[in-house]
User: Fold this.
Amino acid sequence: MGLTKYHFPKQEKLTSKKKIEGLFKKGSSFYLGDFQVRHLKAAIPEPNQILISVPKRNFKRAVDRNLLKRRIREAYRLNKHLIDNNSESIHLSIGFIYLSKQILTFQDIQTQLIKCLERLGTINAE
Assistant:
């Protein structure tokens, strides 16, 4: 049995302005539950990278936005193995955009994120 690594290092965070711009210009997207998921495949031997966005339009207070981002990040960290690919030559850039106008519980966010990751796993397998 392989060990599942539940860490979230800096290399897995999408921070490059060029990559973020490419994700929003060239990437495709789908809506699932309270999330819009943008994704872009790249043939770079790097780990998958994610970006989490909670719009200021829906949540004026920074503490609410940060709470939601922490919950999404933790749900991703615990379930990222659902999209980890076996081939090291394919890399995904993923953007999770939270669309709900309410603050959901961690369990609700995790359930929806698992569905998103499973769908990304099928896209990644293609």
Q: What stands out?
A: The chain has three helices and four strands.
